[in-house]
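Predict the 3D structure for this chain.
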Amino acid sequence: MHHIHCLRKNNSWVCTFYSLFLPNTCNSITSLHYLKLHESISPSAHHLLSSVAMSFSRATSFSRGPNASSGMGVAEHCKSTYLELQRKKVHRYVIFKIDEMKKEVVVEKTGSPSESYEDFTASLPENDCRYAVYDFDYVTAENCQKSKIFFIAWSPSVSRIRPKMLYATSKDRFRRELQGIHYEIQATDPTEMELDVLRERAN
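Done. Predicted structure below.
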C-alpha cells in the first residue's frame, strides 16, 4: 500500500509518496508548479498524480523482487467471470471495483453480448475509478471478423486521490490474473476511450 502527502511550498505542490512495504523510506517524486497559487489541486494535477503513482508502483514492485506481492487481492470470481467473457463469449464486458472492506478486487457488473459500447461506458462511474475488460468485435480491411480483449483502467480526473492511488498500485497485479488481454487503455476522461480509440489500437 502506498500513501501520498502533498505540501504547498511557495508556488508549487511537493507530493511525497510513502510505501508501507518500505516503512523507513519516502520518495519525493515531483513538484507541480503553477503560474499562480491554488488552494487545491486542479484536475490536471490529479491526472499527473495518477500517472506518477502508476510509475511509482512499478518501481517499488521491482525493488521488492518478482515474488513479492503488491496491491489488493483478487476475488476468485473475477477470474472465472473473465474466462466466461474470453472463452464462452457470454459477456460483452466486465466491470471490476476494489472492495476496501474485503481488500480485494471484485466483479461489480457484467454486460450481455447484445449490449453496445455506449452501454458499457454509461456503466462506468463519472467520479470514481474502475477496472474493466471489453470484448471488442471489429471487421478488418480484408473483411475478416475478429475480436480483441481490452483492459481499461478508468481513473477520471475528478475522482479523489485515495481511489486513484489504490487502483494505480493494484492494477499490474490484477491484470496479471487475466491471461489473454490484447491491449490496455488508461483513461482519465471519456475521450481517451472512445470507440475510435479501440478501432485504431485493434487495427
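The longest helix spans residues 43-64.
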